[in-house]
């Protein structure tokens, strides 16, 4: 008796000049666009960056200008300002720093991705480093973060209900979003 024939699965690579991967979601739920990430930008790479750089508070951009901002000083007096001055990582500062829309707008430089903050469930996160790690690309985050109100929760909950954004972005926490 001859051994059964083993066939290799056929793989078809589609290129259309786009960086987007084909959508395979046929469940009727929200369709997601995935992009090819650069080498070194996988979920595991992000996890490593959170443990190494994030734990030291190195994933937050814009703090140097923030402490000189009179609006920030008005909202955050005493204990918070003392902790910021001592370079405590922002995710460890208690009470959380208060950030309003005026301050947030000064930290939404999505064109250069150098200083980009967004709101998720009433908390402000610095996404400057995370943008290149997002498997759906940066456009959807920027689109929701620059709306009024500037909350990415709608997009995140629509596509990632099973993911804990608070844990994923834990060391990117800047503070709480407060109304003007």
Automatic annotation (TrEMBL):
Superkingdom assignment: Eukaryota
Region: Disordered; residue ranges are: 16-35
**Where in the numbering of this chain does the Cytochrome b5 heme-binding domain appear?**
96-178
Report the PROSITE patterns cross-referenced here.
Answer: CYTOCHROME_B5_1 (PS00191), CYTOCHROME_B5_2 (PS50255)
- Cellular component GO terms, alphabetical: cytoplasm
Drop me one GO molecular function for this one. Answer: cytochrome-b5 reductase activity, acting on NAD(P)H
Q: Which InterPro entries match?
A: Cyt_B5-like_heme/steroid-bd (IPR001199), Cyt_B5-like_heme/steroid_sf (IPR036400), Cyt_B5_heme-BS (IPR018506), Cytochrome_b5/Flavoprotein_Rdt (IPR051872)
Q: Which UniProt keywords apply?
A: Heme, Iron, Metal-binding
Compositionally biased intervals (Polar residues):
16-29
Q: Which SMART domains match?
A: Cyt-b5
Q: Which family does it belong to?
A: Belongs to the cytochrome b5 family.
Q: Which PANTHER family match?
A: CYTOCHROME B5 REDUCTASE 4, CYTOCHROME B5 REDUCTASE 4 FAMILY MEMBER
The entry's protein name is Cytochrome b5 heme-binding domain-containing protein
Identify the taxonomic lineage of the organism of origin. Eukaryota, Fungi, Dikarya, Ascomycota, Saccharomycotina
